[in-house]
Amino acid sequence: MKKKKRLYCVHCGNTITRRDEDGILRDYCINCDVFFYDNPLPVVSTILPIDRSILLVKRKFRPYKGMWCLPSGFAEVDESIEDATVRELEEETGVKGKIISLVDVDSCSNYFYGDLIFLTFEAVQIGGSLAPGSDTIAVKYYPVGKIPRLAFDSNTKAVRTFIQNKSDYWAIIDSFSAAVDKDHTPSRKKNLLSDRLVDVIRENEAIIINGWLNEVLMNRSTPTYQSFDRDRLWRRAHDVLSLFSTWAGEFHKDRGGRSVDIRNYFMGFGKEKKKEGFRLHEILSALSLKRKHIWEFALSHGISKKPLDIYMAFEFDRRMMIFFDRATFYSTIGYMEA
């Protein structure tokens, strides 16, 4: 069934003709000298999310009877778009909602209703209880990865836009959850956003070490380093950087599933440095400079001003802080015990 054409004038009953107005062919009544305008109808839709699921309704009537869609409906005369949105949500789902933000605006031509403008809002529940309404036969939350085919293309577009807008936020939540999860079993794979920066560091170890070496050989806080064998310094710096990459990149596990032993390595590191004549403040300064060069390289090669990258930088800095705090602590103990 298609939208019916206008046949007669609503004012005088005369047969409608067609006449050009400003380059557009419109319905026209010769008797009344009146043009009739077919403007797009405003339709409101609501995305009501819980975690990563979206509330859908199954349509009770034509068109698209039995198909799923967002809670949707036409705005009434003398009704604001916002009021229409929360009204339709409650009528179709039983949920009283509050609008959070506009998600998407789309115009389309529908075979049944004609030209439409869909305005889709995100909302939260503030009352009511979930139940089918007079125009729906079922209501159900669907995970965003398992959304069925929707009755209206504009609904599909709005859901896609919503998911894209939330993708960075969800990625941050996932990464944060993985970072604070204490389950470090080898069978459990951890994926953190800052793993990308760990890979950047691993792939550019030589550049970072050379930058650190050039500074430590000139810095006032590390005079003993300036008279030490450069090749040996380079190899040890490589060992520390590799240890950091392995510890961070494998989420505190090496490739064999064994814990990366920061304690024993840096206690031995501190003892060895004391025997070689380094003063404690020089060792700590050199470690601090190493952390500085890792951080500066990561910022310049993997970070932008996007919120996701800013979070990634904070997460990476936290991992560096944990590693180098332990390195400093155990190096000091080893040095004092030597």
State Rg. 33 Å
Instruction: Note the beta-strand portion.
Output: 15-25%
CATH architecture of the largest domain: Orthogonal Bundle
CATH class of the largest domain: Mainly Alpha
Total number of beta strands: 11
Shape: elongated
Q: What share of the residues lie within helices? A: 40-55%
The major beta sheet can be summarized as:
4 strands, mixed
Task: Characterise this structure.
There is one protein chain. This protein has 338 residues and is an alpha+beta fold. The protein has three domains: 1-38, Ubiquitin Ligase Nedd4, Chain: W (Single Sheet); 41-177, Nucleoside Triphosphate Pyrophosphohydrolase, CATH 3.90.79.10; 195-337, Orthogonal Bundle (Globin-like), CATH 1.10.490. It is built from eight helices and eleven strands. The chain has a four-stranded mixed beta sheet with strand order 8-4-10-9, sandwiched between helices. A hairpin with a 4-residue loop joins strand 2 and strand 3 (34-36). Helix 2 runs parallel beside helix 8, helix 3 (195-203) packs antiparallel against helix 5 (230-249) and helix 4 crosses helix 5 (230-249). The radius of gyration is 33 Å and the shape is elongated. Mean pLDDT is 88; it is low at 184-189 and 251-258.
Structural descriptors:
11 strands, Ubiquitin Ligase Nedd4, Chain: W, Nucleoside Triphosphate Pyrophosphohydrolase, alpha+beta, 338 residues, four-stranded antiparallel β-sheet
Structural topology:
Blueprint: E1 17-21, E2 24-29, E3 34-36, E4 41-47, E5 49-50, E6 53-59, E7 68-69, E8 72-74, H1 81-93, E9 95-110, E10 114-128, E11 136-143, H2 153-180, H3 195-203, H4 205-216, H5 230-249, H6 262-275, H7 280-302, H8 307-337
Parallel strand pairs: 4-10
Antiparallel strand pairs: 1-2, 2-3, 4-8, 5-6, 6-7, 6-11, 9-10
Helix pairs in contact: 2-8, 3-5, 3-7, 4-5, 4-7, 6-8, 7-8
